[in-house]
Amino acid sequence: MQPGGGIIGGGYGDEAWLTREMDAAGEARVGVGFITWSMAKRPKLLDIALERKPLAVMLSFGEVRPHAQRIKRAGALLICQVQTLGQAKEALANDADILVAQGAEGGGHGISRGTLPFVPAVVDVAPNIPVVAAGGIGDGRGLAAALMLGADGVLVGTRFYASQEAAGLPAAKERIVAATGDRTVRSILFDIARRNVWPAPYTGRVLQNNFSEKWRGRETELLQRQEEEATTYAAARAAGDFDTAAVIAGEVVDLIANVPSAAEVVERMMTGATQLLAGASNKYRITIG
Hints:
The chain is of the alpha/beta class and 289 residues long. The chain has 2 domains: 6-163 and 264-283, TIM Barrel (Alpha-Beta Barrel); 170-252, no CATH class. The chain contains 14 helices and 10 strands. The protein has helices spanning 15-25, 38-41, 44-51, 65-73, 85-93, 115-125, 140-148, 158-161, 170-178, 189-193, 210-215, 219-224, 226-239, 262-283; strands spanning 6-11, 30-35, 56-60, 77-82, 98-102, 108-110, 131-134, 153-155, 184-187, 203-207. α1 (15-25) runs parallel beside α3 (44-51). The longest helix is centred in the last third of the chain and has 22 residues, at 262-283.
């Protein structure tokens, strides 16, 4: 049995931060994930990562081809998060080792495909490599459902955000616990306020707040007032004012009622999924003859 590994979230890329975090990992089996188009602006990011012999490099939201073979030659696994079948096929054509099929129910950026139909569609076009389901998964039921859809595992975000070890502010975690999926919204409002608008068709799912309700449907006006509102928004983020600043979270907030340890989250998910899958096996066993 091979030991597990972790992924350091490189995000948009900060060379000093990435160097510090990867060096702090030492001999641990870790990989690094990037928002892919950030590497076009900061090519040294991939140098920093590959120099440290990562277990894997995960690419999300951008063209895989310019980076894929370099990652493969370095001996790292290539993990590609995809939101469309076209992206899945592109990743396969560039020798991806693992695909993450991301549905729009998840928090943060994505497109529009729903997790339930998208995951098996990706499984069908990628029968020879592992597929991981992402978006709207936060308990044993979601894990069991993903496995039944043909996925080999799950990528979980929001449920771990509301865990003791997560670096988010307690006030943000409290909002996740109190929220419902009905109170999430996909938009570009928060990207406008951060001066970081993503290309169409990407939008981001966050918890609704006073800022989103004020500006929803008024994106053009917000763009016209971007400098003024960006200053206000940045101050709110720094102060932990989540009536203005966004809490990135997915529809799975309905299933989150507390802030346990990450280990407890994993244990609950594994126990719940195991029980459900065992029950499904017994319930649907068919005898012929």
